[in-house]
# Entry
Amino acid sequence: MEKILYLAHVESDGTLSKAALESLGAAVELSKKLSGSSLSVGLIGSQAEKAAGSIASCGATSFFAVSGPEFDCSRYSTDAAAIEALGRQTQATLMVAAGTSRFGRAVPGATFRLNGRIDSRITGFTVENNSLQIQRWFYRQRMMSTQTRAQRPWALLLDPGVFSPWTGQTGTASLQNVSVKLPELRTRVLGTETATTGPQTIRPDAKLLFVTGAGWTKKQSDGQPHVKEAEDLIINFLEKTCASLGSTKSLVDQTGDGQQVISLLSHINQVGQTGSTPRHQKGLSTCCHGEEPHTVGWRFINERRAINLDANCGWAQGKADVLYVADAFQVLKKVNELL
Ligand SMILES: Cc1cc2nc3c(=O)[nH]c(=O)nc-3n(C[C@H](O)[C@H](O)[C@H](O)COP(=O)(O)OP(=O)(O)OC[C@H]3O[C@@H](n4cnc5c(N)ncnc54)[C@H](O)[C@@H]3O)c2cc1C
# Structure
């Protein structure tokens, strides 16, 4: 009989992030599929009571919290101590949490202290003969494995953007506080800084991924590059659509090559084998050739379109649903006007 513990860190306003609600959705589904299992909730942060109320009807039999201002920020020592205490309190055999950067740091250490095992980047699960099988991808999303473990507790960090977020009625949950003996705190969190200095261009929740390729900075039909014009078109498009901005490696590498560059791009925008594998409903690639090391990062983009001057570019080789053989400068200008 599995004892499932759903773990979440609470936002400063007492809400749960989208990733946290997605992993709650998965934990609830798992508890329904594993017969004889029980579901508990373990919340971390000073606004735990408000968060517990927001998910009171999720079907959990008990709600626990490690509360207090020192648990509001992401810090290994406090987070690991909180997770360990919640694990011990509930005697959990399965611990389900969102694979946020905060939990990615703290859950492995806490699991080790509980003599458990952990798997991260989980994208799906099935239950066979009342036994849990998880799925995850390997080698930059090229191979998918289905695996299980005998060791308990087993901590599961779920990839954001895969599971449906839990929705339900708010209510009042009877929250039990779990006390934690903290070690001396050597780390003080002074604040957070974003990785980019320009406008926020990476938007994981956007419906559309807009990808820019090196073609935007190449010589065009008049024999000249038009980098400033390209930048204005791209910024204008992003402002109008609120799309997330992705890029090819060739384009972001130009910063280091001393060329004239599109200022709002950095390596964190890079999609592909050595970049990211974002999850958006739709993707539009522009001035990008569609080579395999780039398109492998499109694994989870459902509807794909590309604009390229070259009718034989990689996108035409079965990598896009629609390829517009056209000048992206002209297309984007027109699209911006229409928008
Ligand atoms: C080990 C390894 C890992 C790699 N990892 C990655 C990775 O993670 N991500 C990644 O992106 N790449 C990666 N690459 C590089 C990848 O192989 C390609 O070199 C790169 O993606 C090409 O970028 P691009 O399509 O922007 O540029 P290009 O190949 O130069 O293509 C530019 C395109 O723009 C088009 N174009 C030009 N002007 C216009 C216009 N006006 N309108 C429309 N189209 C126009 C051209 O027709 C051309 O097809 C990796 C390579 C290796 C070897």
